[in-house]
Every structure is written in C-alpha cells, then in structure tokens.
C-alpha cells in the first residue's frame, strides 16, 4: 500500500520552538519608537504585552522550550499529519511529488492555535485576566477565543466588518468559546469612532481593528493585547509546523525542493518555512515561496519601509514590506491575507533573497481550491487556496522544465465556514481583482517622511 500519511507519535512532538534570529546572515532592523526614532525597548512594549512574551519577542536564542502546559494543549490535535497529495498529483499530470502539512484539523480549523495557546498561557501566568485582539477572516479570533477559554481568560475580538458580515459562523465559533466579537470599526473606541465619523460605511481593515484592540486593552486593568501574526514571538510559536514536517520527511527519506505557504501577515508561511530557511542558510538547495493575493500585494508590490502596524499609530514603527498603515483593502470575498504589512522576519528574509513571493488573482486561487476539493476531498479555506494556486503554478513550471520536484506546503486551514466565498466563485460573482497602481501610490503617501530601514 502506498504511503498517504506520515505520522508522529505524541512523544515525538517537538519540545522547543526554533528562533530564526539566531541564524540570520544579517541582523534584523529594530522596531523604532515613533516619538524618538530610537530602537524600542522592553519597557515600551510592556503596556500591551506581558514581559514573558516580550522576552521571546527580542530573543536571539536558537531554541525556546515549550512549556508542559502548552504541550498538553497541543497534544489535543498535534502532531499533525504530513500527507501525500497523490490524487492532486494525478490531476496535475506533472513530474512532482506533493506533500502538505495538515493544519486544518485543529479545533479551530487552522494553524492559529499554535500561537494562541502559548500566548494565552503566558498571559495567564503573568496574572492577566483578559485579552483583546483583532481578526480578519476569523481564524485568529476563533483560535484565541478557544485558547482563552482553555486558560480561564476573558476575550474580546474586533473583527473586520466586511468579514464579520460575510463570515457569521466564525463569529458564532468565538461566541461558543465565550468570547465577545465586535464588528470593526466600532463605537466602543476612539479609533473606531474616528473612522466612522469620516467613513460611516467603512468595511474595516486589520489596521483599524488592531487600533481598536490595543486601545481596548490599554483602557482596562489586568488586560493585554494579543496578535496572531507579524511579530517575532508569533513566528517563533508557529515553527512547530516546520519542525514536525522535518521529522516526518526524514522518516521517509525525502527532502523538499520547494517549500510553500500563503502569506498575509506571515505566520503560517513562517511556520512551515523557517526551519527550512535555516537549512538554506547552511547550504541546502531549497526554494521557499510565499503566495499572496494580488488584491493585497504586500510583498510583491509594497516597499520595504518603516511603518505603523495600525491605523491609529499605536504600535512601534516596524521594518516591513507595507502598503501603508491607512490602507483599506477592497471588500472582496474574504478578509484573510488582507493586512497592509508583512512580518518583519519574513520581510527581512525577502530582502536577503532567502525566500521569494508570488501574487495570485482570487479567481486562480478558487480554481485551485476547487481542483483540490474535487481530487483530495478536503475543502480548503480561501487563504489556503492561495498556496494551492502556487503549488499548481510550480507543478506547471516543473512540467515545462521537464524536472522532477518535491513540493511541501502548509495546508493552513479548512473552508467549512467559508462556503459563501465558494458560492460566489461557482456562480460567477467573483472577478480577477488586482490592486490599482494609484491606490498603492495613495496608500504609500502615509509613510512619506518615515525613517528608512
């Protein structure tokens, strides 16, 4: 019988996260304090994060131990399977072997609990009682809601309004886990009220929702803010994906030629790729590709610059590829992969030519997602569809080159609560949307005069 899944026993789960900062050929640029222009220190982050997470954020240690309390929660669904997509391979009829890390079988249906659980844990032991956060398509908000329930924390989620309206079932998931979900922009914060005063019908954005969540956290004692992507400690927690994949591929004596993930804020792409970036730094011949939407082309069309992580300028200035902190994405099929900035770690790796980025139209991504569902059975989330489109692209390249390739990618979330998006695709309501040049130029005016990395 042909191998379809490579499994790890519970005792084989990685017990440490991997920190890429220990192996970078060039050091990362530091985040800057917007008032002074000087590098941000731990004390500057203390109002919104507990010190134990701040220590991880600034750490350059290669390996960070995973607490036993976090491992206990991980073992509810981890280690996740490494699967061979044999039926998809037949459909593509190309000289490729396709493996994927199945991150859609977590209780929340995506990779996001990999960082939600440790973030809830570290806040809990720091004495925090409540977390505030934002979410786009809802994967992060639902994951943090679940994690807060596991550790007895309150949770308030500001969900980008267009996604709140398009994806009611993600809101219901948050409510089941005891969280409060609020459409953003809202009247609960000054940041939200300011947006609504100028744009009453605003569809919202992650930049706006982040501003609301930070303001909400700062306003309440014993509350902190939690972020599901972008920051270094989030990338760190997600490396359990790639570390498991390396163990699993070693079991069958296979090493990938190409490693791929979808890229919005950077967490699931970093999770699968960072352990392989380390291999590449140390001489391995491996191509590493992040797939993003043409509607929000942060890596492929945004400059590498210092910018705020939110609309109201409550964050430090982060060195990242950006479309401008006041960017509001087009209210198309989904709110996922629609953040104006990319994780500084991922941005740094692009600048050092260790990873590359490709952008795909939403029609191409849904076409790939439907091909996947009709061959492999599982219906992928729209975000996952982006990397599947990249896999299809890479398979076609292999066919044109007449070169055999092993492809590994991160199947980062299922689409069972995203079926309205599939309905829009199947009924011809979606169009190939690409962010106009003039909109990029307008958005980037927001960072004129900022420090240069």
Outline the secondary-structure elements.
Blueprint: E1 5-6, E2 16-18, H1 42-45, H2 51-58, E3 63-65, H3 68-74, E4 82-84, H4 86-92, E5 96-102, H5 113-125, E6 130-135, H6 139-150, E7 154-160, H7 161-166, H8 168-176, E8 180-184, H9 190-198, H10 206-219, E9 223-225, H11 232-238, H12 240-251, E10 258-262, H13 267-281, E11 287-293, H14 298-301, E12 304-308, E13 317-321, H15 344-351, E14 356-360, H16 362-376, H17 382-401, E15 405-411, H18 419-426, H19 437-444
Parallel strand pairs: 5-15, 6-7, 6-9, 7-8, 10-11, 10-15, 11-14
Antiparallel strand pairs: 1-4, 2-3, 4-5, 12-13
Outline:
With 453 residues, the protein is of the alpha/beta class. Helices cover 41% and strands 16% of the residues.
Largest beta sheet: strand ordering: 1-4-5-15-10-11-14
- Number of DSSP strands? 15
The CATH topology assignment of the domain at 68-109 and 233-447 is: Rossmann fold
Intertermini distance: 54 Å
Shape: globular
Content of β-strand: 15-25%
The low-pLDDT segments are none
Summed over residues and divided by their number, the pLDDT gives a mean of 95
Based on secondary structure, the structural category is alpha/beta
Radius of gyration: 20 Å
Major sheet, described briefly? 7 strands, mixed
Describe the structure.
The chain has 453 residues and is an alpha/beta fold. The protein has a domain at 68-109 and 233-447: Rossmann fold (3-Layer(aba) Sandwich), CATH 3.40.50.1100. The protein contains 19 helices and 15 strands. The strands form four sheets. A seven-stranded mixed β-sheet has the order 1-4-5-15-10-11-14, with helices on both faces. Strands 8-7-6-9 form a four-stranded parallel β-sheet, sandwiched between helices. It is globular, with a radius of gyration of 20 Å.
């Amino acid at each position: 019988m042909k191998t379809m899944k490579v499994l790890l026993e519970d005792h084989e789960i990685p017990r440490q996260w991997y920190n890429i900062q220990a192996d970078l050929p060039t050091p990362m640029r530091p985040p800057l304090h917007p008032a002074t222009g000087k590098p941000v220190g731990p004390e500057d982050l203390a109002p919104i994060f507990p010190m134990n997470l701040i220590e991880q954020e600034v750490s350059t240690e290669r390996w960070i131990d995973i607490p036993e309390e976090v491992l206990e929660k991980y073992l509810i669904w981890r280690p996740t399977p490494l699967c061979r997509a044999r039926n998809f391979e037949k459909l593509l009829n190309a000289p490729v072997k396709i493996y994927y890390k199945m991150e859609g079988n977590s209780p929340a249906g995506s990779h996001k609990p990999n960082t939600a659980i440790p973030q809830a844990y570290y806040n809990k032991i720091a004495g925090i009682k409540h977390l505030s956060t934002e979410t786009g398509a809802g994967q992060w908000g639902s994951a943090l809601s679940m994690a807060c329930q596991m550790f007895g924390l309150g949770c308030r989620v500001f969900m980008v309004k267009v996604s709140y309206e398009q994806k009611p079932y993600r809101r219901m998931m948050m409510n089941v886990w005891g969280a409060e979900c609020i459409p953003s922009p809202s009247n609960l914060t000054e940041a939200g009220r300011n947006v609504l005063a100028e744009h009453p019908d605003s569809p919202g954005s992650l930049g706006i929702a982040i501003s609301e969540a930070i303001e909400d956290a700062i306003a309440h004692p014993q509350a902190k803010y939690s972020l599901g992507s972008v920051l270094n400690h989030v990338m760190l927690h997600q490396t359990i994906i790639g570390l498991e994949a390396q163990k699993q591929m070693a079991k069958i004596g296979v090493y990938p030629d190409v490693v791929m993930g979808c890229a919005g804020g950077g967490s699931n792409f970093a999770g699968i790729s960072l352990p392989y970036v380390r291999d590449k730094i140390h001489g391995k011949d491996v191509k590493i590709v992040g797939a993003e939407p043409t509607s929000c082309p942060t890596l492929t069309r945004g400059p590498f610059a210092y910018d705020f992580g939110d609309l109201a300028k409550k964050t430090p200035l982060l060195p990242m590829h950006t479309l401008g902190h006041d960017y509001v994405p087009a209210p198309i099929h989904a709110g996922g992969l629609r953040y104006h900035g990319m994780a500084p770690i991922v941005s740094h790796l692009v600048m050092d030519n260790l990873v590359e980025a490709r952008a795909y139209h939403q029609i191409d991504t849904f076409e790939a997602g439907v091909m996947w569902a009709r061959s492999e059975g599982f219906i992928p989330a729209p975000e996952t569809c982006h990397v599947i489109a990249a896999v299809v692209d890479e398979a076609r390249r292999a066919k044109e080159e007449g070169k055999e390739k092993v492809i590994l990618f991160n199947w980062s979330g299922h689409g069972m609560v995203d079926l309205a998006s599939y309905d829009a695709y199947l009924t011809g309501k979606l169009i190939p949307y690409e962010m106009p040049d003039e909109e990029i130029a307008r958005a980037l005016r927001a960072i004129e005069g900022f420090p240069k990395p």
